[in-house]
Amino acid sequence: MGTTSDAPITNFSQCHVGILSHLKAFGGLPALLAPAEQARQVAQETLKFFRDAVYEHHAEEERELFPAVLASATEGIEMDQVKFMVERLTREHRQVEATWTRLEPHLKKIAKGQSADLDTAAVASLVRDYSAHAAFEEAEFLPLCQTILSRNSNHMAALGLSLHMRHVPPVVAHI
Fold it and tell me: Is 127 a member of any domain?
């Protein structure tokens, strides 16, 4: 049994337990920095990509592709099928964009290295919904577009030219 004269030494020894515990947590900090930096970069890149690519992709489909296919589809079953698909795809665009609008403020915080309450279910939903949207478009809608628009090479050429012109930088005339 220790005597009361041992108490100061025991107090010093007990301090080491707390110090070592904190140092152990501190020692793990470098391993946490890389994932935190990766999260910041993914958030930053996704913010830019979604606005520059996804919204533009939706707009091009709705301004160019959907009207071209609707204008070229034959009346009856084909037209009904195209209308149904275009309505579905447009509705899915709005749903994905609505989910994005809810997530965007949180991603902006993460991109700045700030703490954010990111709705992980909404992230999973957006990824799942867009993956299903793209799969439907690739497997069903785009092959139908190819069939419809390729009946008239002028329709396909007009669509190609229109899309090309949207991606050509404007020429500034010198006066």
Answer: yes
Q: Within a domain: residue 110?
A: yes
Instruction: Provide the residue-wise pLDDT of the chain in tens; the chain has 175 residues.
Output: 555 566 666 666 677 788 888 889 889 989 988 999 999 999 999 999 998 999 999 999 999 899 999 999 999 999 999 999 999 999 999 999 999 999 999 999 999 999 999 999 999 999 999 999 999 999 999 999 888 988 876 655 555 544 434 444 444 445 4
The one-letter code for the residue type at 60 is: E
Q: What is the CATH number of the domain that holds 73?
A: 1.20.120.520
**Token code pair at residue 20:** 């070592």
Is 14 part of any domain?
no
- Tell me the whole-structure pTM to 2 decimals: 0.76
124 vs 46, 107, 118, 158, 168, CA distance in Å? Answer: 14, 14, 11, 38, 35
How many domains are there within the chain? 1
Q: Which residues constitute the domain of residue 68?
A: 29-166
CA distance 55 to 99: 13
How far is 171 from 175, CA to CA, in rounded Å? 13
* 3-state SS assignment for residue 62: helix
Assess if residue 22 is contained within a domain.
no
Half-sphere exposure of 155 (CA within 13 A, CB side): 17
